[in-house]
Amino acid sequence: MEGETVSLDHLEELLDDTPPFNVLSGAERRQLFDEALLAFYEPGTEILAQGVVPAHPRYLYLVVSGAVQLTDTESGRLIDRCDEGAVFGHYALLREGPLPYEARAIEPTQCVLIPEAAFFRVYRSNRAFAAFF
After folding, report:
1. Model-level pTM?
2. What's 54-98 look like in SS3?
3. Are 125 and 25 in contact (CB under 8 A)?
C-alpha cells in the first residue's frame, strides 16, 4: 500500500454516509480530524492487543479502506469485522482497563486515527454522536 493515500473527497463522502459522523457539523468534523493521523496496516498486523490497557495517546480508529477483525483471542470467537466506515477503539476510550478483544488487519488497511482529546470534545458536545457510542 506504499504510496497510497486517502483522498479528501473519498473521506468526505465516507463521513457523509457513515454514522455517527453524518450527524456532525463541519466545525465538529474539523475538531475530530484536524489532529487525526493516517495509518497503514499490512494484513496480519496487530493494531490493538487483547488484555492490554492501551497506552496514551489513545485513538478512535475509522477504517477508510480494507478490513480489521476484532477477535476474542482466548476463545477464538469473532467479535466483529470492521470494513470501510466502521470504527473501533472506542472501548479503550470510554472504559479504563484491558481490551476484551484483539484488533488485527485482515487486508491491506488504512485507518484514520482520531486522538482521544478530539474524540471527547465532540463526544461531550454532540448528544447524537455520544449516543452512537
Report:
1. 0.91
2. CCCCCEEEEEEECCEEEEECCCCEEEEEECCCCEECHHHHHCCCC
3. no
| pLDDT score, position 51 | 94
- The C-alpha cell at 116 is 482521544
At residue 5, the pLDDT reads: 57
Is there a contact between 111 and 63 (Cβ–Cβ < 8 Å)?
A: yes
Angle between helices 26-33 and 116-125 (to 10 degrees): 160
In the sheet that holds 109-115, the strands lie side by side as 37-41, 109-115, 59-65, 87-88
- pLDDT one-digit tens code per residue, 51-108: 998 888 899 999 999 999 999 999 999 999 999 999 999 999 998 789 999 999 999 9
What 3-state class would DSSP assign to 117?
Answer: helix
- One-letter amino acid at 11 equals L
* Cα separation, 70 vs 100, whole angstroms: 9
Strand pairing partners for 17? none
Residue located via cell numbers 480530524: 33
